[in-house]
Amino acid sequence: MKTLGLILFSTLLLAFQPVAPSYQISPAASRLTWTGHAEAGSWAPTGALQLRRGSFDYDGTRLKNGRFEFDMASITHADANLQEHLRNEDFFDVTRFPVAVFQLREVTRGEAVGQLTLKGITKPVRFPITVVRQPDGTVRVRGTASIDRTQFGVNYNSSSFFQDLGSYAIRNDFQLAFDLQAAPAR
User: Where would I find the Lipid/polyisoprenoid-binding YceI-like domain in this sequence (predicted)?
Assistant: First the structure.
């Protein structure tokens, strides 16, 4: 009988655990920038990308259960030809795959752990981030993820797949730097 009472009491305690408040990202107040790299030399094109929407749970110490949707058609670069090339089938094929999604499981010791879906392919990713609660109650999340594009079927001019590319070879990894602003969901 004591065991049953203890189990019931423990279950009730777990049921009344406070739920971490949900936060909504403000796409207009957030910034995402990407940087690619030539395999040889110093050429490193950069551009921007828009976040469609995002949310996560944050209890003041732990950030978890996030979902972030990226508008792949918004990828920009100063050179219009490169911008369109990034949007076509050689790279991100935004007509077929207009949205990329990062599902955050949790942040542990300053490292985000989750699943990235890009071009319909889902792979685990992890990268360092910082989370700062602002005096006004909003939360700022910053960091840089290094993504191996070839894991998501973006093989264009990768020396891992093509030989004798010379100065046309593009490194497999690119960086996505982010500075996200979020407020408690209403």
Answer: 22-183
